[in-house]
Design the sequence.
């Protein structure tokens, strides 16, 4: 007789087994779908505690309580109720990243109905939950193999730029408004947005605008990991995930840009409105950060917890230290359109939402710039977005659908770039700022007064993972000159 048959024919149900069955698959489900968000020992410990140890305790204690003679008649219902409720509650929590009150009420009702009418079938349910867990283990092992097979060769620099020595050491402020479109695209195409007041504000404060600038990748993590490493990763040739492997660690913990600033004696600051890049609790490579990991939920999208950046900026910008400062400041507006596919007249509705969020971004940027200039008038201030806003599409996922519509392609990648150079002194050699992957290499050449570092610029192509309209893969969408193309990357074939 098989183990399963023996279990199904037994007359008792172990509260420990019922508890493990209710929490094991949700853990594996969450790790399979969100590994880059939870790949820390702290997360593993949290999930084991909340999804396994706590249910084991609750199930065991409840079973003992309902063994009391006066309420013993209800004992047959307690484990079926707890198992169904806990399993569905954990799955809902993993899907939504937070407790949904209406859904939880529905789960409570379902669990009660099952316990009352179908309690005799609980062992079959447990067997099914454990089978799902086995499938989850197999899937997770496959995902882990891809991650552990990851090659870090792309991180290597072609020269000694990591050891560059600055001749000039102004304080550097990198303001990154999420999804802010370049001014050269904002007033045409699917955007057609009037933004002259903000552009004039920047001009009056001696910012130089760089038209036709764009990101190399379509999302925050993939774009920033390339920007801070000053290298292309091309998704490592893997079209299965839009999140680059170890992207958060590369952005927050250690990267070439951060190393260069530290090697030149800079104190480094990370200020962010939301803890999106901190979700997996990467080792903090910056000297100061406005978020503490104790403030970040273990299960979260990183887009619900918000802080104003101005209080921290005002505090740190006036901090009297001998070292120069480097700030990376994330502003989560105007951002790209959302992924809701149920909106009627979606292109117009989401364009209107973008306009509203653009106004918020402008207000935040102006307030931050006023604080910086008032307290640090000779600073180098760079406004550079991480990607475009996807306006013109009905929902975010359409970005993965092949198109040769020039304005739609540029809507994904076009990004703002405006720089306020110290004392108004621009780079001596006329340099073309085309894409984000080369921005810091050009900046370091400027600060070191060594033009040789621009001899190893990366190509200015923009790349995406296409999921529909062509075989899934990594494609070049915009070439080095800014022309819309569609070329599958062969580097990893």
Sequence:
């Amino acid at each position: 007789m098989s183990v399963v048959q023996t279990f199904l024919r037994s007359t008792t149900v172990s509260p420990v087994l019922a508890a493990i069955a209710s929490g094991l698959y949700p853990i594996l489900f969450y790790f399979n779908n969100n590994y880059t968000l939870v790949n820390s020992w702290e997360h593993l410990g949290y999930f084991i505690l909340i999804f396994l140890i706590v249910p084991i305790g609750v199930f065991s204690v409840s079973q003992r309580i309902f063994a009391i003679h006066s309420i013993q008649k209800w004992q047959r219902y307690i484990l079926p109720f707890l198992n169904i409720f806990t399993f569905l509650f954990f799955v809902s929590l993993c899907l939504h990243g937070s407790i949904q009150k209406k859904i939880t009420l529905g789960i409570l009702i379902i669990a009660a109905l099952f316990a009352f009418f179908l309690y005799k079938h609980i062992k079959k349910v447990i067997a099914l939950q454990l089978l799902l867990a086995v499938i989850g283990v197999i899937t997770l092992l496959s995902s882990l193999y891809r991650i552990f097979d990851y090659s870090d060769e792309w991180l290597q620099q072609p020269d000694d730029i990591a050891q560059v020595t600055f001749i000039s050491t102004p304080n550097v402020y990198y303001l990154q408004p999420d999804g802010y479109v370049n001014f050269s695209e904002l007033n045409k195409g699917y955007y057609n947005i009037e933004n002259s007041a903000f552009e004039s504000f920047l001009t009056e404060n001696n910012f130089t605008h760089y038209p036709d600038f764009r990101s190399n990748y379509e999302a925050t993590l993939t774009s920033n990991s390339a920007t801070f490493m000053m290298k292309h990763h091309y998704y490592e040739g893997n079209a299965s995930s839009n999140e680059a492997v170890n992207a958060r660690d590369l952005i927050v913990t250690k990267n070439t840009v951060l190393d260069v600033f530290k090697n030149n004696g800079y104190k480094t600051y990370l200020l962010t409105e939301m803890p999106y890049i901190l979700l997996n609790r990467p080792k903090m490579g910056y000297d100061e950060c406005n978020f503490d990991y104790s403030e970040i939920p273990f299960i979260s999208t990183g887009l619900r917890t918000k802080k104003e950046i101005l209080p921290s900026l005002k505090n740190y910008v006036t901090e009297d230290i001998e070292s120069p400062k480097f700030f990376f400041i994330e502003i989560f507006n105007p951002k790209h359109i959302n992924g809701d596919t149920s909106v009627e007249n979606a292109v117009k509705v989401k364009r209107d939402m973008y306009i509203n969020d653009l106004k918020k971004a402008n207000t935040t940027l102006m307030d931050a710039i006023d604080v910086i200039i008032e307290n640090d008038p000779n600073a180098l201030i760079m406004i550079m977005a991480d990607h475009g806003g996807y306006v013109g599409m009905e929902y975010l996922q359409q970005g993965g659908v092949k198109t040769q519509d020039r304005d739609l392609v540029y809507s994904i990648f076009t990004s703002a770039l405006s720089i306020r150079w110290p004392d108004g002194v621009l780079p001596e050699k006329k340099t073309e700022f085309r894409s984000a992957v080369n921005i810091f290499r050009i900046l370091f050449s400027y600060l070191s007064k060594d033009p040789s570092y621009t001899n190893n610029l990366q190509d200015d192509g923009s790349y995406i993972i296409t999921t529909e309209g062509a075989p899934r893969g990594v494609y070049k969408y915009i070439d080095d000159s800014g022309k819309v193309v569609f070329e599958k990357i062969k580097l990893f074939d």
